[in-house]
Design goal:
- By secondary structure, this protein is of the alpha/beta class.
- Helices cover 36% and strands 12% of the residues.
- It has a 7-stranded mixed sheet.
- A hairpin with a 6-residue loop joins β3 and β4.
- The longest helix has 15 residues.
- The chain is globular, with a radius of gyration of 55 Å.
Length: 280
Amino acid sequence: MKLIIGLGNPGEKYERTRHNAGFWLIERFAARTGIAMRKDAKFQALVGRHADSGVWLLMPQNFMNASGRAVQMMAGFFKITTAEILVVHDELDFAPGVAKVKQGGGIAGHNGLRDISARLGSHDYWRLRIGIGHPGDSQAVSDYVLNKPSAEDRGEIDAAIERSLEIMPLALAGDMQAAMLKLHTQDKPPKAAEKQPKAAEKARPEGKRVASDKPPKVDPPAKETPAPKVEPPPSAEPPPKVEPPPADPPARQTVAAEAGAAPGSKGALESLFKKFMPNK
């Protein structure tokens, strides 16, 4: 690595705004290593140099959307290739507390990166991205980056800068793969991990569901195994049918009762009749 650039806007008005996260890292690194950052009119920037490695530090003093001018002049003057450049900048797509390194890629709407890429004619420089979070509305981005973070967010951003400073010796030595591995395998701060979904929630159009809104899938309760069907025991054999005994034949009535009294009885009646009736 031969050139490390921190992006930001010059002046007291912007020095504590989110867009100046790149400046914050360079200032802190320079203070800890005893590097004096001096204004250089030729490069239109604050310039310093790390004595042991010879790496240049650069803080462009044009506004963000003209940051590439100082980078182009410095790289051209010292014959520095894009692969030997590291740009430190604020990153909307990361929550406060997150920092990552990558080489090349898009500019994600960052005006400072856009100007640098246009002037260098390449995207292949290295980037150290310091998360500042997203306002949730693309129309609010300009005001968001040009305002101060909350005290809580500033604490998370400072923590990410501290972890990034730990990889600077590796970056100065040009071992960017080792620097990336070290930074990306550090434990994530818990608050940063919690905040990232909130930013995504704000950015989502109202009323629109995403996969994360779906209720957790609950497995249906296991069906109870039905009790084995028990066949009823075979019914007992019905008792044999008993036929009722034949009815006795009716007693035969005597013909004598129907025909009248017996001949002997007739004579008795006649005698009685004569007794009570006088002779005619």
